[in-house]
From TrEMBL:
Pfam families: Peptidase_M14. Residues 42-398 form the Peptidase M14 domain. The lineage of its organism: Bacteria, Bacillati, Bacillota, Bacilli, Bacillales. GO terms for biological process: proteolysis. This is Putative deacylase. SMART domains: Zn_pept (SM00631).
Amino acid sequence: MKKKWASTIGIAGLCAALAMPVYAAETETRPATHHHDYSISGFVDYVELQKSLKQIEASSKGTVQVDVAGQSFEGRNIYTARVGTGDKVILVQSEIHGNEKTGTVALLNLLKTLSGNSAQAKKIREEVTLVFMPMLNPDASEADKRRNSMTWADVVEDYPQLAGAKPSWNYLDRGVSQSYDYGKNPGFDVNRDFNPDLSYVPEATDFPGASNLPGWFITPESQTSRDVYKSLQTEFGNVDVFIDLHHQGMYYVAGTNDPVTLSLSAQFVPDPSTPEGAKYAEYADNYNYDLSRQLNVAAYNELQSYGNSKFTNISLYSQGLDLPGTALGSYALNGSGTVLFEVKGQTQSLGQKEKGQLVKSVERGLSAIVESVADGSVEKLNPEDYEKIPLTSSRPAN
């Protein structure tokens, strides 16, 4: 961790049968609407985030610790908020993609609850240490876009050994979106810039890479997430749980006409102990797929408990993935139980519409995971129940 409260403010396959995209695929179709046709004023921006974190820290009277973990490419602070003193470690991050904003609101709400004086909050804090990174990519958040604002030239300046390499495959320097002109505003998909080798140093021979290959930690945002993860490993020996909060497009619970409210997933790389995952064999002793499935089941069961409501429209995201360049894939190989949250829509397609319901879905799912880890009940869940969760489909049943 770096300095506390700076004095100045600086500037995701397989599921083809269901026609699912491969975890936030680069070819995802964007709506033809203009980027600013939908208001995002109801979400939390960078300045509001800072104010909220400072207020929560102050009112918690020492229960919450807010730190600057690093800086974005444009120099904005990337914050962590830590609550609890238990031996079980949960790391949650939001807005690695800046147009996926409901997770940030949910984390601030949950932080307020966990820092309170209720008996349940106190018990959770005794059992669990929670570290939230509520806005990992503040530059993209401020611009309401997916990618950061770094160029390949910036990367080569930082890593001269890459001068002769082709730009990485997750770098977009062409206009492919009607909602944001990346031709004038190139950048990297930060969630393809992770590597299971947390000490990896970029080498020209590893570029341009591909979606099923590890990333490189060339962006300051991925470096910051990695550094927080490694610091927790050093302190506790392991990060028990890692949760990544995202948005997706508009999909359906397979076999129904029900629009998906939230997709979950536990699987981002093949099991290193299987022939399919043999290339990750060095990580086999750490990989804990059963825990990942149990965590997902905890969230699913909680949301299903609300009966006949949109909270029950929960499904599994694409399975059979091999994405070691994502935070979820890299951290799963390093021993964390992992959970992906993908609420429906993005700011370009929904704006604030249904914001309250989507935020509450994330809050409730997260709370169920935190509580089940704290009291140990997650360990009693049958991981095979994960396989009973319906898949996500791009088409309604009829």
